[in-house]
């Protein structure tokens, strides 16, 4: 049994005949938001927008995490009863629901429809029937958000398009009588649908109801004139004429299939007549194809109804990087849609980005089209304008598909666009060709890499499922290194499939080496070579864009880069850098993930790094990387001072190199947003600094990122950051740097319950601080030692250390440091039952924090006061303190402490006799604990909730 999901009606999931409890409506909406992009990561902000709309409540993200946790539990329980489960996983780009798309009725529907459109009529009818049978009603009718409403409308349009295609099949089979009632009902719901009216007229005519067929035409003609001010289109007018004249071509088909018409003869003029014309079928073989259901649906929407009254040809542009599968998608869709274009399909490779040779001249392409259309070579005019005019004349009244593959630019495409409204044009290019959207209303369809599920499917098509099942670890490694690029996956599959080629395990090991990865992805010719594909795009760049491409490769594998950081790397003002990045984006060498946030595919980055070594002087590379590190260090330092405005946080930084533009966020909220966007890049910058021996920058970057990672509870990242920072500090041999590095490692080890390591680093930190005669640093180290003892359960020893911290801090002049020490003393006094003294110390701390506007310190002290009030039996007072602390922690982005305070709020609600409220707070806390990898704390709260239920 498998877990099957339903979206084409009420949102549902079931195993066998048993329904899975998916919770309340909004929780089901979260599931729908994930199922719509099954196997793809949906960003957290994107999920919030889909579920809550453009103006979510302040607690929407916390509630989202709760819904995700509950859905995981529900699916996990269902998976225990099935042989094929589904899982919600956290990915770098957000959350993804992983399952076979065919187990989701929406994606199965799209797959069946695509297969039906490519099949012969007998098979197509069965597939269409199966697809339509999946519908149980209006999709998620009880959910009401802008995203749900938009998707619902889109899905209903897809169903309607499927019905129309199914009708054509049944009419060709002579099953008009069975369709009559359904066609009449459908036309009542869609009174302006000309294709539907054309089908209904045919069914009426074949049923001997010619007068009714003519009345149907008259009704829609008047409706179009009254509501749209337009006349019927050519197809509907042609059907009207056929009915009027009793045209035998629209009679019911006989049992025997009619023979195909012969290729048309050429008239004496040398131009094929409209009656006897050649039917071009120029599409190449579609080859191996997997997935892309959403993109196929977009193409159906863009080109599926190409005949538009009074309009021009429908145009769609598939754009994407080299090797991403543009041609494969275009040709596959074209084969599936052949029945929609009964007058033929024209295809040409425009060689716009060919590894060898020049782009094809438009005149040459037109001559090829005229040959395919049956024009005598001796009748083809030499003048280019006349040539194009003849081409457009010949296709003006036809329903044809024109595929313009591998286009270089807008000019090359424009010369090949038909003039009539009955044609559709499908273009592929590495450039976006935005100009076609402006001048011809083209639909732009950017193509991304394959999902992991689709990638595995493609590799399986090359090697077979048995081969993949035999070595799943090697499969995972190969797919990871190919990073979803269809060309790379196909090359890897082809190499492994050859008897004398490498095994999957050997290929995975070969791809592991970054310096040789592009060599491994070479199948022996220019068209099946990832490096050659990248080279063509690189070769067409301007000098400034080519340099930017190289430097982005030299910057290393950061997941993304912001505009200001890229400007620093390039040594240009942000506005100029944006122009350069736009050129790279136009040819899909970079992708803009969000406004002014850019990324580069892993294999493209490897090629860019190769070009940096070959084409960029070493001094220029190092200068650019130093500017990048300077940007992150100086901007991060300015942000950290807003998070932690302590005197001891001051750093002496060297001025940034010329060409660096710093960002200066205005407040703590903006600071946290900047850190959330840049923290992975900051860690990558630390790695770059280490590779170049810039040790001072390495440990200073650790200082800069420290506060953010601590507040977010990213413990593993925090430990790794300071291990690197400590190694650099040891190479510098400076006591101040060593004291800082050992102290922060001690604190992180204590938080990770590694008491022995915490004591070791604290001792080393204290020795370095004493050697540097830094009293305030010694005070901070005693605070960390106290925290470590408290984690061991020895609050008495912890209190002794924080009291020493307070004595040392009173000798200094930093009021906020003193306030922190006062709060720490009060906290441990309260833990030991010394409530009167604890209250005095915490109230003094709160007054200082508020006087200086330090909200972090205020939140921590309010949490302590909540603990004191709760312990003293003053539960309502405790509730007020804790709730104020929780709001502050949430606003400040301090998720670690917010989770702790939520747990405390649950305890207070339980003491007040509110078990349901207590369980809710504990559940929210447990969700945050799990995100922070604090499984022990989460388990404690879940056990408490379970014991109450029992």
Can you walk through the features of this model?
With 950 residues, the chain is α/β, with parallel strands linked by helices. It is built from 42 helices and 13 strands. A hairpin with a 2-residue loop joins strand 2 (12-15) and strand 3 (18-19).
Main traits of this protein?
950 residues, alpha/beta, five-stranded parallel β-sheet, three-stranded antiparallel β-sheet, 42 helices, 13 strands, 6% strand, globular
Could you tell me the radius of gyration in angstroms?
34 Å
| Low-confidence runs | 256-277
Number of strands: 13
State the share of residues found in helices, binned by percent: 55-70%
User: How many helices does DSSP assign?
Assistant: 42
Describe the main β-sheet briefly. Answer: 5 strands, parallel
The largest sheet has its strands arranged as 7-8-9-6-10
């Amino acid at each position: 049994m498998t877990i099957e999901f339903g979206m084409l009606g009420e949102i549902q999931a079931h195993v066998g005949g048993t329904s899975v409890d998916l919770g309340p409506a909004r929780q089901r909406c979260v599931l729908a938001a994930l199922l719509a992009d099954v196997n793809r990561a949906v960003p957290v902000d994107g999920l919030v927008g889909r579920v809550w709309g453009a103006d979510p409540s302040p607690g929407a993200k916390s509630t989202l995490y709760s819904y995700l946790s509950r859905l995981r539990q529900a699916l996990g329980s269902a998976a225990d009863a099935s042989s094929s489960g589904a899982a919600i996983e956290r990915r770098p780009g957000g959350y993804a629901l992983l399952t076979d798309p065919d187990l989701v009725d929406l994606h199965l529907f799209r797959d069946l429809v695509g297969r039906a459109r490519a099949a012969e009529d007998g098979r197509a009818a069965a597939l269409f029937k199966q697809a339509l049978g999946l519908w149980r009603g209006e999709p998620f009718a009880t959910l009401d958000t802008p995203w749900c409403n938009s998707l619902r409308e889109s899905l209903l349009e897809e169903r309607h398009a499927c019905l129309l295609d199914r009708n054509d099949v049944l009419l060709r089979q002579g099953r008009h009588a069975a369709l009559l009632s359904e066609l009449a009902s459908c036309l009542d719901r869609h009174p302006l649908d000309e294709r539907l009216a054309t089908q209904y007229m045919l069914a009426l005519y074949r049923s001997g109801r010619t007068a009714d067929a003519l009345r149907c035409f008259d009704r829609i003609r008047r409706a179009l004139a009254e509501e749209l001010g337009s006349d019927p289109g050519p197809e509907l007018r042609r059907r009207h004429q056929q009915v009027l004249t009793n045209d035998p071509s629209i009679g019911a088909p006989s049992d025997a299939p009619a023979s195909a018409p012969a290729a048309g003869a050429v008239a004496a003029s040398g131009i094929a007549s409209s009656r006897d014309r050649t039917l071009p079928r120029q599409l190449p073989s579609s080859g191996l194809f997997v997935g892309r259901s959403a993109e196929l649906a977009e193409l159906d929407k863009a080109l599926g109804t190409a005949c538009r009254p009074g309009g021009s040809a429908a145009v769609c542009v598939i754009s994407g990087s080299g090797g991403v599968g543009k041609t494969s998608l275009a040709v596959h869709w074209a084969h599936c849609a052949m029945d929609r274009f009964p007058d033929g399909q024209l295809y040409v490779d425009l060689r716009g980005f060919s590894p060898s040779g020049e782009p094809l001249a438009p005149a040459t392409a037109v001559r090829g089209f005229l040959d395919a259309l049956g024009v005598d070579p001796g009748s083809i005019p030499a003048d280019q304008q006349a040539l194009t005019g003849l081409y457009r004349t010949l296709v003006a009244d036809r329903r044809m598909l024109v595929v313009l593959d591998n286009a270089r630019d807008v000019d090359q495409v424009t010369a090949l666009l038909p003039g009539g409204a009955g044609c559709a044009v499908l273009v592929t290019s590495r450039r976006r060709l935005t100009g076609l959207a402006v001048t011809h209303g083209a639909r732009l369809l950017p193509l991304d890499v394959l999902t992991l599920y689709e990638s595995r499917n493609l590799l399986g098509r090359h090697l077979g499922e048995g081969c993949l099942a035999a070595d799943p670890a090697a499969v995972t490694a190969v797919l990871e290194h190919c990073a979803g690029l269809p060309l790379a996956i196909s090359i890897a599959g082809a190499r492994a499939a050859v008897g004398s080629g490498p095994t999957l395990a050997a290929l995975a090991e070969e791809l592991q080496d970054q310096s040789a990865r592009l060599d491994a992805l070479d199948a022996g010719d220019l068209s099946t070579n990832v490096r050659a594909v990248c080279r063509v795009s690189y070769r067409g760049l301007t000098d400034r864009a080519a340099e930017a491409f190289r430097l982005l490769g030299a910057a290393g594998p950061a997941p993304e880069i912001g505009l200001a950081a890229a400007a620093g790397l390039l040594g240009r003002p942000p506005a100029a850098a944006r122009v350069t990045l736009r050129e790279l984006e136009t040819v899909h060498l970079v992708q803009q993930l969000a406004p002014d946030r850019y990324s580069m595919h892993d294999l493209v980055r490897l090629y860019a790094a190769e070009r940096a070594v070959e084409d960029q002087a070493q001094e220029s590379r190092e200068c650019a990387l130093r500017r990048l590190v300077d940007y992150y260090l100086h901007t991060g330092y300015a942000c950290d001072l807003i998070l932690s405005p302590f005197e001891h946080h001051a750093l002496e930084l060297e001025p940034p190199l010329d060409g660096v533009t710093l960002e200066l966020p205005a407040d703590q909220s903006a600071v946290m947003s900047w850190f959330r966007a840049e923290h992975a890049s900051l860690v990558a910058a630390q790695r770059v600094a280490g590779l170049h021996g810039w040790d001072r920058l390495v440990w200073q970057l650790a200082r800069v990122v420290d506060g953010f990672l601590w507040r977010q509870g990213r413990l593993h990242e925090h430990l790794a950051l300071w291990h690197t920072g400590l190694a650099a500090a040891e190479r510098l041999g400076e006591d101040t740097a060593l004291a800082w590095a050992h102290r922060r490692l001690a604190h992180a080890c204590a938080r990770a319950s590694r008491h022995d390591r915490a004591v070791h680093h604290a001792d080393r930190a204290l020795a370095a601080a004493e050697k540097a005669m830094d009293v305030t640093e010694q005070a901070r180290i005693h605070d960390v030692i106290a925290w470590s003892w408290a984690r061991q359960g020895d609050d008495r020893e912890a209190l002794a250390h924080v009291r020493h911290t307070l004595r040392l801090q009173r000798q200094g002049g930093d009021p906020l440091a003193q306030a922190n020490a006062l709060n720490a003393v009060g906290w441990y006094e309260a833990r030991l039952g010394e409530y009167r003294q604890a209250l005095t110390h915490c109230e003094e701390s709160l007054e200082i924090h508020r006087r200086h506007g330090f909200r972090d310190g205020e939140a921590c002290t309010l949490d302590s006061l909540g603990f004191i009030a709760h312990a003293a039996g003053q539960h309502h007072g405790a509730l007020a303190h804790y709730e104020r602390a929780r709001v502050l922690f949430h606003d400040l982005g301090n998720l670690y402490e917010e989770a702790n305070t939520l747990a405390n709020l649950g305890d207070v609600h339980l003491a007040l006799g509110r078990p349901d409220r207590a369980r809710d707070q504990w559940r929210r806390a447990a969700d945050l604990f799990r995100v922070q990898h604090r499984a022990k704390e989460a388990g404690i709260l879940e056990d408490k909730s379970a014991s109450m239920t029992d």
